[in-house]
Amino acid sequence: MLEIAKNVSQNSYAPFSKFRVGACVMGASGNLYKGCNFENSSLGLTICAERCAIGHAVSSGEKQILAVAIYSPDSEECYPCGACRQVICEFKGDTDTEIITEKNGEPKVDKLSELLPFGFKI
Ligand code: THU
């Protein structure tokens, strides 16, 4: 999943921040979905890589997200922002979604519940 996140980060559209991000999501079906960040001249409209990938997953019928890998070639370690943590939380299902990052060239796995202990859910 990190390899997919790395590859798709090359498609990032980040002319304003110059910060490229790629993400890969695993749905409950086991299928993988990728996404990259894409910015906008109207800066608040920027979409993060994770939410781009989650959009692909949900529009393919996924209701639960088992894992999310995130990678930026422009950072030592790239964690999901707070907004993306909350969006991942919406689709965590019965399991605690794994958040996969890379640190010092090694994969690192955290649980969503550690990164967002009191996520909002109706
Ligand atoms: N970004 C992501 O794609 N994911 C995150 O979790 C944090 C931030 C993007 C948004 C923006 O295009 C750039 O990184 C700098 O904030």
Polypeptide structure, described:
The mean pLDDT is 97. The longest helix is centred in the middle third of the chain and has 11 residues, at 49-59. This protein has a single domain, classed as Cytidine Deaminase, domain 2. 26% of the residues lie in helices and 25% in strands. It contains four helices and five strands. β4 (98-103) and β5 (106-111) form a beta hairpin. It has a five-stranded mixed beta sheet. It is globular. By secondary structure, the chain is α+β, with helices and mostly antiparallel strands. The N and C termini lie far apart (30 Å).
CATH class: Alpha Beta
Portion of residues in helices? 25-40%
Bound molecules: tetrahydrodeoxyuridine
Structural class by SSE content: alpha+beta
Indicate the topology.
Layout lengths: L1 H8 L12 E6 L4 E5 L12 H11 L5 E7 L10 H9 L7 E6 L2 E6 H4 L7
Parallel strand pairs: 3-4
Antiparallel strand pairs: 1-2, 1-3, 4-5
The protein binds tetrahydrodeoxyuridine (THU).
Give a short synopsis of this structure.
With 122 residues, the protein is an alpha+beta fold. It has helices at 2-9, 49-59, 82-90, 112-115, and strands at residues 22-27, 32-36, 65-71, 98-103, 106-111. The mean pLDDT is 97.
Can you give keywords for this protein?
single chain, 25% strand, Cytidine Deaminase, domain 2, 122 residues, alpha+beta, globular, binds tetrahydrodeoxyuridine, five-stranded mixed sheet
